[in-house]
Structures are given as structure tokens and as C-alpha cells.
Structure to design on (438 residues):
């Protein structure tokens, strides 16, 4: 009935070795050996200087995300008896692995060693491992509170809101760049404000409204679960939604892309509508359904939303050559597409995929489709991730990337283990017909 990836040595070894292989692939690809002493000395001198150019900021974000995954995977495949001790050990491991890679890059004519990379890689490993432990402890504290669906709504709502924030910062269909967007933070902000685009109704994305409104719903439900009244939770969710919409759009502008008043209004209004809907209909739905029924509603809604996130704009590719172009070595190589990006879009896309699917893992830990067989534990989530990501091959303007698929599968496993470490056990089969277990 239960599943624990730490129970099998083979699972631990495959997961860890696989992720280390991804790290080495990302950091040592295109390695042209050149061990001339003078050049090695020059590369070492260059590596010991911190640099803060725009490209280095993007590289730092990419490193943090990459090694955060390493920290999370290593943590969830550890026994979990001494979690914070494991965090320290994993942070040291991340530092040693990063130092080894950077030392190796001193002998490459095409790779660049940097103390920046060691710092950001170590920070990423720390954040990934510590994040898993902190999430498990937070969810453990919520076990004593009433959870109408059997799993904590904060565990569903917080990651989903994280995905919304990632989408707001780096929208799928808005990649324009402001002229002269570099320089200091102040210069970037002033430049972004100068290129602010005014509000226009036709520029409000209907798809964004559909995807962002559930964040307001989940925030309101999570705040109620944390002890607030329905009205106070609604106001809190609305305020958070509006502040996030404005703040992230400004940050999006500072990163060099146009600020759109239409996006601020559309995103904020969507979350306000979601919070109001949860306040009005949430108690009514909860009274009519038992715990299994509520869980079915939440998880079915999450699956539908994942389909919309993955397959928007729901337009097919009609040219076979365009379909073939989505199945290349680059698309099938981990970090093959992300590694070629020179902005934060790819980084935020990976974060978005992780946040979306970690919620599914938490839900399946409490309500598996079946206790045994091919629909048990995390397998249904993995099947869904494969179908949606591979399906992007046939969707116009979408890009198939095996990196996204690996991220999604890892997120499902991480969410599952977080729920288990927090003490949540399976309450019944989601597809079952008998009353849920007490």
C-alpha cells in the first residue's frame, strides 16, 4: 500500500547516478581538452573573480535550479531519520561535485571555470535539500488541522501559485525585449517603466485567466485550512493575488521585457475571481461530498489544468517537417534545449514544471488511484506527464523537451515523498467505490 524510494538500494542508486550524469552532461559537454600550463594558469586566475553581468545572472539561476534538483533528489532518496544532517551532507556533496567540475573545466578550451558556479551550485544543493525538509515539516504541522480533502490544501496551493509566479515572470507568449534594458537595477527599472504598455481589453489573455483563477481558489482554501474565516481568507487571497500580479510584472520588466498593464489587471482579476468563487462555493461543495469526493474534485481539476498548461493554445502542427523537428538529439538530451537558452525563460519553465507536478505527487500519496498494480503510487502521474509532454510534439508553438519530462517525474516523486515524510498515509483508492479508510 505504501511506497518508499529509500527502501530499495537500486532505486536510490539509479536516481542519484542518473542525476549526477545529468549534471556532468550539462557542465562537461563540448569539452575540448587543452592543458597548456600558461592557459590553465590564466583560466584559474579568471575563475577566482566574481562577475555579475547579465549573462552570469542567467547562468547563476540555471546553476541553482540544476543543483536544487540534485539536492532534492538526493534528500528524498535518503532514509530521512536525520533530515537536517542530511541537508548539511548534501550541501557538502554539491560543493565537492561543483568544485570537481570546475577544476576539470580549467583544462578545457571551450568551458569556463568560475567561483560563481561553485557558489551558486552549492546554494542550489542547499536550497533543494532544505526545501524538501522544510516542506515536509510544514505539512506535518498541518496534519492536526481539518483537511477536507485528506491532504493539506497548502501543499497543493503553494506549488501551484509558484507555477503561476513563474509564468507571470516569463510568459510563454511574451518574449519581446526592451531596447537598452541593461545597466544597474535603477536603470533597468526606469527603462522598463518607460516601455510600459497601457491597458487594453483585447490584450488580456483568456487562457491566463483560466490558469490563474485556480491560484486564488487554492490560496483561499489553504488560508481557511490554516485557521482564517472564509471572508478573511478571501480578502487575504485577493490581496496576495493583486500584489503578486503587480510585483512580478515589474520584476519581469526589470529583467528586460515590457511591462503590460493588461497583464497586471488580467492576472490580478483572475485570482480575485478565484478567491471569491472559493469563498462562495467552497463550503457548499465540501458539505455535499465526502473526503474521497473532495479529493476527486481537486485532483481532477488539477489534471485538467495540467492539460491546459501543457497543450495551450490547442492548435495542431500541420506540417510534418515541424513535427520531425521536435524529435532530435537536442530535444532528447537532458538540458539540450535549456542549455541553448541565453535568458531566464528556460530556467523559469523548469521551475514551473516542477511546481505544477509536485502537487500531483502530494495528492497521489494520500489518494492513490489504486493500492496495487499499474495505477498505484506515483505511476499514474508519470503516465500523465509522458502523455502531455510527448503530446507537445503535435501542438503548434510548443516544444518537446525531455528535460521537462524528467523534471515532472522528479517533482511527482518529490511531492509523494514529502507527503509520506510528513506522516500522510493512503486514505483509500481514489477510483474505489467503498467508503474511504478511517
Amino acid at each position: 500500500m505504501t511506497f518508499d524510494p529509500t527502501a530499495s538500494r537500486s532505486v536510490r542508486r539509479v536516481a542519484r547516478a542518473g542525476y549526477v550524469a545529468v549534471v556532468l552532461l550539462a557542465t562537461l559537454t563540448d569539452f575540448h581538452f587543452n592543458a597548456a600550463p600558461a592557459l590553465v594558469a590564466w583560466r584559474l586566475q579568471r575563475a577566482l573573480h566574481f562577475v555579475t553581468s547579465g549573462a552570469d545572472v542567467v547562468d547563476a539561476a540555471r546553476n541553482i535550479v540544476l543543483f536544487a534538483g540534485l539536492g532534492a533528489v538526493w534528500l528524498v532518496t535518503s532514509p530521512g531519520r536525520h533530515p537536517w544532517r542530511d541537508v548539511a551532507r548534501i550541501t557538502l556533496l554539491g560543493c565537492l561535485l561543483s568544485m570537481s567540475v570546475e577544476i576539470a573545466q580549467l583544462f578545457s578550451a571551450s568551458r569556463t571555470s568560475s567561483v560563481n558556479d561553485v557558489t551558486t551550485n552549492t546554494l542550489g544543493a542547499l536550497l533543494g535539500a532544505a526545501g524538501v525538509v522544510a516542506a515536509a515539516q510544514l505539512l506535518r504541522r498541518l496534519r492536526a488541522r481539518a483537511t477536507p480533502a485528506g491532504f493539506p490544501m497548502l501543499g497543493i496551493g503553494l506549488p501551484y501559485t509558484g507555477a503561476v509566479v513563474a509564468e507571470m515572470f516569463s510568459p510563454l507568449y511574451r518574449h519581446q525585449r526592451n531596447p537598452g534594458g541593461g545597466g544597474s537595477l535603477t536603470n533597468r527599472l526606469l527603462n522598463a517603466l518607460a516601455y510600459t504598455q497601457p491597458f487594453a481589453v483585447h490584450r488580456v489573455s483568456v487562457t491566463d485567466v483560466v490558469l490563474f483563477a485556480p491560484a486564488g481558489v487554492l490560496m483561499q482554501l489553504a488560508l481557511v485550512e490554516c485557521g482564517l474565516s472564509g471572508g478573511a481568507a478571501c480578502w487575504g487571497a485577493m490581496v496576495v493575488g493583486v500584489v503578486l500580479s503587480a510585483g512580478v510584472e515589474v520584476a519581469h520588466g526589470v529583467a528586460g521585457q515590457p511591462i503590460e498593464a493588461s497583464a497586471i489587471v488580467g492576472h490580478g482579476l483572475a485570482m480575485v475571481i478565484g478567491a471569491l468563487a472559493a469563498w462562495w462555493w467552497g463550503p457548499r461543495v465540501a458539505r455535499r461530498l465526502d473526503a474521497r469526493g473532495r479529493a476527486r474534485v481537486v485532483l481532477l481539476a488539477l489534471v485538467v489544468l495540467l492539460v491546459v498548461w501543457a497543450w495551450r493554445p490547442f492548435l495542431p502542427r500541420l506540417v510534418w517537417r515541424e513535427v520531425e523537428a521536435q524529435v532530435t538529439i537536442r530535444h532528447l538530451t537532458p538540458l539540450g534545449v535549456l542549455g541553448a537558452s541565453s535568458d531566464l525563460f528556460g530556467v523559469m519553465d523548469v521551475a514551473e514544471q516542477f511546481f505544477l507536478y509536485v502537487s500531483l505527487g502530494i495528492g497521489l500519496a494520500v489518494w492513490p488511484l489504486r493500492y496495487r498494480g499499474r495505477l498505484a503510487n506515483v505511476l499514474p502521474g508519470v503516465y500523465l506527464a509522458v502523455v502531455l509532454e510527448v503530446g507537445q510534439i503535435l501542438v503548434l508553438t510548443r516544444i518537446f523537451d525531455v528535460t521537462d519530462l524528467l523534471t515532472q517525474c522528479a517533482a511527482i516523486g518529490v511531492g509523494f515523498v514529502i507527503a509520506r515524510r510528513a506522516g500522510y498515509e493512503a486514505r483509500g483508492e481514489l477510483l474505489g467505490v467503498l467508503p474511504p479508510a478511517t
